[in-house]
Structures are given as C-alpha cells and as structure tokens.
Amino acid sequence: MNFPTKSFPAIGQGPCSHTALLGLVLYFLILPLIHLSAQPYDLLLKGGNLIDPKNEIDQQMDIAVKDGKIAAVQISIPDSSAKKVIDVNGITVTPGLIDIHGHHFWGTRPDAYLSNSYASLPPDGFSLPAGVTTVVDAGCAGWRNFKVFKTQTIDRSRTRVLAFINIIGGGMAGGAVEQNLGDMDPKLTAMEARRFAEHIVGVKLAHYSGEDWTPTERAVEAGQQANIPVMIDFGRQNRHLNLEVLFMEKLRPGDIFTHCFADVRGRMPIVDDEGKLRSFIKPAQERGIIFDVGHGGGSFVYSQAIPALEQGFRPNSISTDLHTGSMNSGMKSMSNLMSKLMNIGASLQEVIAQSTWNPAKAIQREDLGHLSVGAVADITVLQIAKGEFGFTDTAGKKIIGDKKLIAELTIREGKVLWDLNGRSNPLYKP
Q1: What's the CA gap between 156 and 107, in Å, rounded?
Q2: Mind listing the pLDDT tens digit for each residue in 21-36?
Q3: Quick check: 205 and 232 in contact, CB under 8 A?
Q4: Strand 132-138 vs strand 97-102: parallel, antiparallel, or unpaired?
Q5: Which of 178, 201, 220, 376 is the most buried (most CB within 10 A)?
Q6: Secondary structure letter of residue 14 according to DSSP
Q7: How far is it, in rounded angstroms, from Cα 418 to Cα 62?
Q8: Using CA atoms, how far apart are residues 67 and 59, in angstroms rounded to an integer?
C-alpha cells in the first residue's frame, strides 16, 4: 500500500478537505499496524540448547511465543519478528519443570502439620526460582477442606497449582487424623475429584501406620471412581507390608510410588541389605508402576539411589516433597535435586525428561511438559555451572559433584516470572 508523501491541506480548506482528513487519520492508524505486523511474536528466545523430550529435540533452536502459547520452534527465527528478544545462547532451554510432589496448603492452623498450617509453603516463592512452573500438592487437602485450599492457594498463585486429594477427608493434618479409617471415604473423595477435575489429578495416601491394606484399597477405589492415579507414601508400619504385593496386586498401572529412594522404618526399601535391587522392581516398573523420587526431609539416601542407578534403575519422575523441613536440609529445591541426580549417574537429558514430560504423563496432563507449537508457553532456562558442589542426602551423608543446574529464567504462559540475571531486561544507560 502506498501512502501520500505530500503535505495535507489545512483541515476545512479546499474542495477535498474531507478526503484529506480521512487520509490523515488512516495514515496514522494503519502505519502502527503495519509495524506490528512485522513483529508477530511477543517473545523470542534466541540460541538456546533446546531439550524437549516429548518432541525428541536436543539441539540449538529458537523459540517464539505469542499470546501465551508456543508460536514457533525453529533453528533460526529473525530478531525483527519479535517485540522482545532474550539471548539464551549456549544455555539449556526446557519445558517448564513440573514438581508432582510438594506441600503448598500453607496457612496458620496450629497442630495441623501440612494441611493449612505452617510447614507447607506458598508455591510462588519457592518453585519459580527453581525453574518450576507447575506444582502438584501431594495430599494436603481432603474432600472436607479442598475448597479452602483452592481459594487460598490455587486461585492466588502465579505458579500452576494442581493437587492429589487426600483419601483422608481432613487432609494431611498429621497424628491421629491420618490414622482414621472412618474418614477414608472413596465415594466422597472421588466426588470432590470430579467436581474439581481441572485441579485434582490424583488421590494420595500417606503416613498410615496400620498393618492392613484397607487404606491402600480405599485410595485405589477412589482413583478408579474418578479415573485418576493414586500416589502412595508407603511405610511407618510396625511390620512391613510387602512391596511386591503392593506393586503387583494392589496398585494399578499408572499409580505412583513416591519416596522411591527412601530407607525408613516400617517400609521395605527397593535395594536390599546386600546392595541389590530387588528382583520385582523392574518388572513392577514395566507393569506401569510410576516410581517417583519425592526427596523430602527423610526419603532420599545414597545407599538406595546410587546402587539402584548403577543397576540400571531410573525413576520415572523427579519431585521434591517440598516443605519447610526439606527445603532447609538436603533437598533445597527442584534444580538442586536434579543436579544431585546428575552427579550420581543420571544424564542431563534424563533429569529433564523426569522433570517435564514424564510427570506430565503421570498426572494425565499431556498438555504440559513440552514445547510443541500451540502448547502453553511454560519455559525454563537452565545454566549448568561447573565447579565443586556438595550434595547431602537425608541421612546426613555428602557427595561432591562438579556440576549444578541453576534456573536463569522461568516463563509461565509467556510471562517472565523469574529472571536471575536480568536476561530479559535492557541494559541501563545513563
């Protein structure tokens, strides 16, 4: 389209004054639109080493974002095509990290452990700085108080917050509350899960110390009714309940066994006293049981994790079991936990898969955990620092590693919510 180059006559003068006025208005309205059309993208990440397990990408690629969605993934996208360009040359770009075991029903109820009380943590302050864009609260709320959790945390967080609903109606309030078989109601749990299907992705059973299978069976029944997986935090029994029975008879393919590298009282560990991975662990994984790390404050020891990895076992998903105890001890954060696993034998590609696409599949949210065109623009940018770093397990044992992942950028629905070194900001010029 050609625009007039001559000066316009004064408004109201000459026989073509109305035409001139219209041309002037169109000139100043259309010109900005043409300028915008040359910049169709809101955000462009340039030169990053993209690892996207779902799409089997592991190479340098540019990523363009528009309206909160992935708009293009190409080897080279012109800088001029975006309103904002972020240089991520030479560092790792991944789908937004997903932490499927954390505790986020934070509040001020005394003596309520993780259910609307002091030991849980608001997600925005503790997940975004670690590169996590989606957290899954692991059973803090049950059917009696899930609405409070939704109003108080889910609806007020910039981090995406999903949840496993506790089979206990009163949630993870600790002590006698979590031993109450009378409050383990599969029907009411499943009803609440269906009611809030947008947010509830599974059923949680934890901390039961009895010596029977009733809680497990009720949790699985609720999962069957709502067509969602169950996450089991198994142990604390005075007498071990057999893990092989749990994996091969009680749980369904797709159900989740968390704290897989724990060695705690009342639970059979996956590596025996001779350092051998138990014979039924790999068959259970092949059957479809999901093994989740769930580090926490007491559920990750090197005496389990290192021999398991050396014998070819790999967890399906990495998760933190984030709460005030774990973040201030050996676990610290999702990126630190991923680093810990890399320093005991896992590859970068493995820990990214275990923190993105694998957990997305485990919670039946395959809209997440990848960077396909059209997907939500949840993106994490990770720097791999080289040096000498200490990593501690929950038994107080330390290893020294030579690499550590650091979250440089956390982008949620196309918005930069964490920027460690100001990569998305222009330089100050006096």
Answers
A1: 13
A2: 555 545 555 544 444 4
A3: yes
A4: parallel
A5: 178
A6: S
A7: 20
A8: 25
> Longest Cα pair distance anywhere in the chain, in angstroms?
100
Question: 20: Cβ–Cβ under 8 A, 6 or more apart, which residues?
Answer: 8, 9, 11, 14
Which two three-digit tokens encode residue 84?
């904002």
Tens digits of residue pLDDT in 102-128:
999 999 999 999 999 999 999 999 999
Tell me the two tokens of residue 224. Answer: 């069957």
Residue 56 CB neighbour total at 10 angstroms: 7
* Distance of alpha carbon 85 from alpha carbon 364, whole angstroms: 33
Q: What is the pLDDT of residues 35-87, one digit of tens each?
A: 444 579 999 999 999 999 999 999 999 999 999 999 999 999 999 999 999 99
Q: What is the pLDDT of residue 17?
A: 55
* Nearest of 346, 366, 349 to residue 357 by alpha carbon: 366
CA distance 100 to 205: 14
- Other CB atoms within 10 Å distance of the CB of residue 286: 9
Residue type, 321: D
Residue 213 identity (one-letter amino acid): W
> Which residues 6+ apart lie within 8 Å of 170 measured at CB?
115, 142, 144, 145, 177, 180, 183
* Rounded CA separation 80/78 (Å): 5
Provide the residue count of the chain: 430
CA dist., res. 139 & res. 338, Å (int): 23
Assign 356 to helix, strand or coil: coil
> Which fold would CATH assign to domain 95-383?
TIM Barrel (3.20.20)
**pLDDT of the residue at 68:** 98
> Cα separation of 45 and 270, whole Å?
42
- Which residues face 405 on adjacent strands? 384
Kindly give, in sequence order, each residue whose CB lies less than 8 Å from that of residue 132, ignoring residues fewer than 6 positions away: 96, 97, 98, 99, 123, 159, 334, 380, 410
Enter the tokens of residue 236: 């604390």
CA pair distance 366, 360, nearest whole angstrom:
5
Token digits of residue 52: 């996207």
Dihedral sign for Cα atoms in the order 181, 187, 190, 195: negative
pLDDT tens, position by position, 381-402 = 999 999 999 999 999 999 999 9
Burial class of residue 344 (count of CB atoms within 10 Å of its CB; 0-12, 13-18, 19+): middle
CA nearest to 73, candidates 371, 278, 356, 408: 371
C-alpha distance from residue 50 to each of 54, 60, 73, 271, 404 (Å): 12, 6, 10, 35, 18
pLDDT at position 240, please? 78
Q: Determine the pLDDT at residue 10.
A: 46
The one-character DSSP state at 322 is B
